[in-house]
Design brief:
The chain has 122 residues and is of the alpha/beta class. Helices cover 47% and strands 19% of the residues. The protein has one domain: Rossmann fold (3-Layer(aba) Sandwich), CATH 3.40.50. Strand 4 (78-82), helix 4 and strand 5 form a beta-alpha-beta unit. The longest helix is centred in the C-terminal third of the chain and has 14 residues, at 108-121.
Length: 122
Protein backbone atom coordinates (compact mmCIF):
# COMPACT_ATOMS: atom_id res chain seq x y z
CA UNK A 1 0.00 0.00 0.00
CA UNK A 2 1.39 3.35 -1.06
CA UNK A 3 0.56 6.71 0.48
CA UNK A 4 -0.48 9.07 -2.32
CA UNK A 5 -1.27 12.79 -2.32
CA UNK A 6 -3.56 14.09 -5.07
CA UNK A 7 -3.56 17.85 -5.69
CA UNK A 8 -6.72 18.61 -7.67
CA UNK A 9 -8.99 21.65 -7.56
CA UNK A 10 -11.96 19.86 -9.15
CA UNK A 11 -13.63 17.92 -6.30
CA UNK A 12 -15.21 15.35 -8.64
CA UNK A 13 -11.92 14.54 -10.40
CA UNK A 14 -10.16 14.32 -7.04
CA UNK A 15 -12.80 11.96 -5.70
CA UNK A 16 -12.66 9.70 -8.76
CA UNK A 17 -8.86 9.49 -8.57
CA UNK A 18 -8.86 8.94 -4.79
CA UNK A 19 -11.56 6.26 -4.94
CA UNK A 20 -9.75 4.38 -7.74
CA UNK A 21 -6.50 4.36 -5.78
CA UNK A 22 -8.17 3.34 -2.52
CA UNK A 23 -10.01 0.53 -4.34
CA UNK A 24 -6.60 -0.64 -5.59
CA UNK A 25 -5.33 -0.85 -2.00
CA UNK A 26 -3.50 2.46 -1.66
CA UNK A 27 -3.95 5.26 0.84
CA UNK A 28 -4.88 8.49 -0.93
CA UNK A 29 -5.86 11.99 0.08
CA UNK A 30 -6.87 15.04 -1.93
CA UNK A 31 -5.79 18.65 -1.43
CA UNK A 32 -7.37 21.52 -3.41
CA UNK A 33 -4.36 23.59 -4.44
CA UNK A 34 -0.63 23.70 -4.96
CA UNK A 35 0.21 25.50 -1.72
CA UNK A 36 -1.60 22.88 0.36
CA UNK A 37 0.08 20.14 -1.67
CA UNK A 38 3.55 21.49 -0.88
CA UNK A 39 2.72 21.83 2.82
CA UNK A 40 1.34 18.30 3.12
CA UNK A 41 4.18 16.75 1.10
CA UNK A 42 6.85 18.53 3.16
CA UNK A 43 5.15 17.60 6.45
CA UNK A 44 5.09 13.88 5.65
CA UNK A 45 6.65 12.58 2.48
CA UNK A 46 4.20 10.47 0.47
CA UNK A 47 5.18 7.57 -1.75
CA UNK A 48 3.82 9.33 -4.86
CA UNK A 49 2.20 12.63 -5.83
CA UNK A 50 -0.45 13.32 -8.47
CA UNK A 51 -0.69 16.95 -9.55
CA UNK A 52 -3.05 18.92 -11.75
CA UNK A 53 -1.26 21.54 -13.86
CA UNK A 54 -3.90 24.24 -13.35
CA UNK A 55 -4.48 24.83 -9.65
CA UNK A 56 -5.07 27.84 -7.45
CA UNK A 57 -2.16 29.48 -5.63
CA UNK A 58 0.69 27.41 -7.14
CA UNK A 59 0.45 25.52 -10.43
CA UNK A 60 1.29 21.84 -10.56
CA UNK A 61 4.36 22.51 -12.69
CA UNK A 62 5.64 25.00 -10.11
CA UNK A 63 5.01 22.47 -7.33
CA UNK A 64 7.17 19.99 -9.27
CA UNK A 65 9.92 22.60 -9.66
CA UNK A 66 9.85 23.40 -5.94
CA UNK A 67 10.01 19.74 -4.95
CA UNK A 68 12.87 18.95 -7.32
CA UNK A 69 14.95 21.73 -5.71
CA UNK A 70 14.79 19.91 -2.36
CA UNK A 71 17.10 16.94 -1.82
CA UNK A 72 14.48 15.00 0.19
CA UNK A 73 12.07 15.09 -2.76
CA UNK A 74 14.40 14.85 -5.75
CA UNK A 75 13.39 11.22 -6.34
CA UNK A 76 9.70 11.48 -5.36
CA UNK A 77 7.53 9.96 -8.13
CA UNK A 78 5.22 12.61 -9.62
CA UNK A 79 2.42 12.05 -12.10
CA UNK A 80 0.73 15.03 -13.75
CA UNK A 81 -3.03 14.51 -14.23
CA UNK A 82 -4.25 17.42 -16.29
CA UNK A 83 -6.60 18.79 -18.88
CA UNK A 84 -3.71 20.38 -20.75
CA UNK A 85 -3.56 18.47 -23.99
CA UNK A 86 -0.63 19.82 -26.00
CA UNK A 87 2.72 18.13 -26.44
CA UNK A 88 4.37 21.38 -25.34
CA UNK A 89 2.53 21.25 -22.00
CA UNK A 90 3.68 17.68 -21.47
CA UNK A 91 7.27 18.58 -22.35
CA UNK A 92 7.17 21.51 -19.92
CA UNK A 93 5.92 19.26 -17.10
CA UNK A 94 8.50 16.58 -17.82
CA UNK A 95 11.28 19.18 -18.06
CA UNK A 96 10.23 20.49 -14.64
CA UNK A 97 10.66 16.97 -13.27
CA UNK A 98 7.36 15.11 -13.65
CA UNK A 99 7.83 11.37 -14.15
CA UNK A 100 4.59 10.75 -16.04
CA UNK A 101 1.76 12.70 -17.66
CA UNK A 102 -1.87 11.59 -17.98
CA UNK A 103 -4.50 13.68 -19.75
CA UNK A 104 -8.08 14.25 -18.61
CA UNK A 105 -10.57 12.82 -19.07
CA UNK A 106 -8.89 9.69 -17.78
CA UNK A 107 -9.79 6.07 -17.19
CA UNK A 108 -9.46 5.33 -13.45
CA UNK A 109 -7.98 1.90 -14.25
CA UNK A 110 -5.34 3.57 -16.42
CA UNK A 111 -4.52 5.95 -13.55
CA UNK A 112 -4.03 3.03 -11.16
CA UNK A 113 -1.88 1.21 -13.73
CA UNK A 114 0.36 4.25 -14.27
CA UNK A 115 0.65 4.89 -10.53
CA UNK A 116 1.66 1.29 -9.88
CA UNK A 117 4.23 1.44 -12.70
CA UNK A 118 5.79 4.54 -11.14
CA UNK A 119 5.81 2.95 -7.69
CA UNK A 120 7.59 -0.14 -9.04
CA UNK A 121 10.26 1.99 -10.70
CA UNK A 122 10.94 3.93 -7.51
Amino acid sequence: MARIIIAEDDPLVGQIARDALIDAGHGAGVVPNGADALAVIKARRPDLVILDCNMPEISGVNVVRELRKLMDFADLPILMLTGRRSEADEELARFAGANDYLRKPFDPDQLVFRVEQLLEKH
